[in-house]
Amino acid sequence: MGLEILRKLLNIIPSWGIHIERSLVALDLMDRKKSLILDIGCGNGGFSSKLVNYGKKVVGIDLIKKRPKGNFLYVIGRAEQLPFRDNIFEQIFCLDVIEHVKNDLSVAKETNRILEDDGKLIITTPSNFWKFPYYSFMKKITHNEKKLRKKFGHVRKGYSLGQIKNLFKSLKIEEVEYFCNEKSAFGYDIEFSRLYGIENIILKFLGFFLFLNFKLSTKKHGTHIGVRLGK
Question: b or e along 66-87 (b: 16 or more beta carbons within 10 Å of the residue's beta carbon)?
């Protein structure tokens, strides 16, 4: 009973996690001058809604049949075969998507096709530094990497910067940021551990320190990578 009350009280505080760092890095890489945006793999619409709050015109695409909440256009479709005409979007976000897709080359070709001549593509993905759990002492309360990848549908572990360059050959890399470094990776281990619901409570208490670590980090290394590419 006491634990349930504590959970309800803490619900007003967001749990710091890898998804928050991903959103902040993506917004940092965003070209603020671009207006018409596609959010590939928009999920529940949380990030698409953030973009709308920045005054952007947003289209979200995913395989979810139930329309996500948010003041943006939602389209059901696949990243490997995007149902849009050529050269239409000023900016595309593809956050933690390509590691889930078998034919990532098709995603690269499709994003290039629908991106306008001066368009920008922002992607995030686990980097070549990703491992789970990050800290070996966490192995007793976390899934192993193989089980975690299967649970979340990872086709591949992640990408190095060189692999991203090779995949998106027709685009130029403009900026790179790494996130989830060795300190915030502890929060990542907690987030996906088997602590029977109290992991989010722990992350709320750690949230302030994880936020400071994120803001003060150099973003030159980490278990995840964010890249802005341009035509």
Answer: eebebebebeeebbeebeeeee
